[in-house]
Specification:
With about 180 residues, this protein is α+β, with helices and mostly antiparallel strands. Helix content is about 25%, strand content about 35%.
Length: about 180
Amino acid sequence: MLEYRMIKEEELSLELFENFRRHQDVTKCWRKEEGSWRVKDIAFVDDWKREDYEELIGILKRSIWGGGMVYGAFEGRYLKGFCAVSGELFGSKKQYLDLSNIYVSEELRGQGVGSVLFRKAQEWAGRHGAEKLYISAHSAVESQAFYKKMGCVEAQEYSRAHVEKEPCDCQLECPVPDA
C-alpha cells in the first residue's frame, strides 16, 4: 500500500532515490512539423545516473524554496513516485503554475500512481492561485498518452524558457479545480 504525502526539503537526498528507477525505453515520439503533430520513430533510452539525481535534488529544493511543493508516493520508506509544482505564477494572465516534475518508478507505472500525483499537483495549484498547470512534457508516445488521459491539451501560450531548455518537449496545459 502506497502512502502519499508532501516531501520536506531535508528529505531530499540521494538516499531518498536509492530504490527509484527512472528508466524508459523510448521508440516513438511526438514532433510538431509544419503546424501538425506527428509520431516519429525516435529511439533512445532514458535512464538516470547519479549526476541526474543530484541535479534533480537541486531542482526539487529550489521548487520548495520558491514557494512550490514536492509530493511523493512511498512504499514503506522507499520513494516510488513524485511530482513538483513551482510556486511562481506565470503567463500573460498569471494563469499557470509549472508542473516541473512528475515521475513514477518503472516497476509501478500503469498502476495509477501517476494519476494520483497529477491530481495532487492540480489541487495544490488550484489552492495557490493557478487556473492551469503548465507542463513541458516528454514527447514519448507513452508519456503523451498519460497526459492526454489526465486532460492535458497543447498550451495556449508557450513558455519560451521551457522551449529553449527542452525544444523537443510538448508544451501542455491542464485546468485545475477551483480553490
